[in-house]
Input
Amino acid sequence: MSQNVLLTGGSGFIGKHLTKVLIAGGYSVSVLSRSDKENTDKITYYKWNPDKDFIDKNAVLNADFIIHLAGEGIVEKRWTEKRKKEILESRVKPIDLIFSVLEKNNKKLNAFISASAVGIYGAFTSDRICTETTPPENDFLGTTCQIWEAALDKFENLGIRTVKIRTGIVLGKDEGFMKKVAPNFKSGFGAVLGDGKQYIPWIHVEDLCQIYCKAVTDELHGPYNAAVSDNTTNKSLSKTLASLYGYTIWLPNIPAFVLKMALGEMSAAVLTGQRVSSEKIENTGFEFQFTDLEKALSSCIH
Output
């Protein structure tokens, strides 16, 4: 019998891609859903509602692995205090809910694998290269990631291998980051944000899915940066994307103060960025298929 992987956030951008990859790899896949969905011959759906502390415990009890991808979008809405709370709780509440089922039923998983983010290293720009041992920052993104990852640590007390995938900007066709930025560039109105010097740690969705699969099959443990180690900045990404659409950027940079007025505190997510090292994940034998920015972006728009 094939091993079962249970996904939270399975209907999202990354979750949909990962579901296909896992099925192709011979796994059975279960997905936690807030709405009623009909099972298919490949996917089993279970109901849950973390806001109401409800979960069909069979989803957890039937799982060999759990991959936690659920969470409110970081740049979907302005960071009001209410929104900040939603962003944090949407990541932590599901962890607590799943843990309670495991603990009460003395259920042991092969691994609990969770998304995290390179935002743990802080919302500012510097030339340092952040590794998994770089101290986290205490701004909103850094603190959110710290609490998110700390919530995972209790699985270790149950003897469950726990993996934290610190993800950069994910590139994929018509979804996620590209869904937000591609339309402006496609129409000829692409522009650099701020001074354009902020680094953008990125990864192609296909590579990210393979990292999750490696976390399932191999004895990965603890945090791993999931981003290509290069010097991509907002300026270089913008210029490359415009070039792929056949033009040179003609608009002036969008000033930082304009973005701060429009986005408030959330502007930190687009005006800052640090370099990260992928050495740890590559030392496991993982090889990125997309390391060239132009080829990666091209695969997302053609």
Notes: The two ends are 38 Å apart (CA to CA). The mean pLDDT is 96.
